[in-house]
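Now for today's protein.

===
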Amino acid sequence: MTKAARWAGLLMGLIFGALSLAQAPAPANSAGVVVTDVTGTVRYRIGNSEPQAVVKGQTIPIGARIATGPKSTVVLTFPDGQIVALGTASRIILRDFYYVPNAIPQSNVTMNVTDGSVQIVMGAIGQHDPGLIQIQVGTKTTAQTPHVQRGGDLGLVMLGAATLVQVNQGKVALNVAGQSYGMATGQGAVVQADGTVQLGGISQLEAQPGRTSDDKEMFEHFRETQQFKFPHSPRQTMITLASPPYDPKRDPELMAAGAALDALPATAATAEPSPATPAPTTPSTGGAGGGTPCAASCN
């Protein structure tokens, strides 16, 4: 082989090597969420660790259970730009977050709203594929929940509790027990624990006969959460969910597991804030969210 041919072969190898590196997916990001706003008494805990007060600017790791007290709220920003605002007297578990910027179909998000209310602005993951986000509602374990197939719909898994859903902005198709329900801006749905779905406007749904005291509190939680104001693009999908408060008599396991968290006094030692890293902005490419159930208990 001539010297020129050897140089040509080396050059081609370098070019193809550079191309393969350029096309490789960026590393996955499973970092925690940044607290961008907090009012009142908000706490979090990891597993059986001691509860800690939530501080604006800190990073809370995935896997945390977060609880807001009366007249207290918290706003969380995820690495893909997703925003989650937790309303008063609410609890959420950040089950799973896996973000691959250059290969979003490999990403997924799973959250468990045990009770209370939450407003969600979709980030890069949810905007790209509505089958990548799943929201579990209630306090039962996921072992009691059937597997939900990813199908391009926002996955809603009922764990023994009802929930009220409204699409504030954009379009969402809910996947409940394998059934798809399309919803657009301003439309709402009441999803019962057994998977029964009622569609309609919020006022229409609230006026339905037979509403219980739990239902009324669910609608009240919903109205409170509508007051959240935070920056987002008109292209982003935004939804609100509200669930009735849990009953300790019905859920003794959850009460025991969350007793230390709920009883933490407002004067508790403040967690040392972690540096707040701004969430990357990723162009939107689609609709809303869905996902895969977690294998762990939701308690």
Summary: The chain has one domain: 25-263. The chain is about 20% helix and 30% strand. The CA atoms of residues 87 and 209 lie 26 Å apart. The first helix runs from residue 3 to 23.
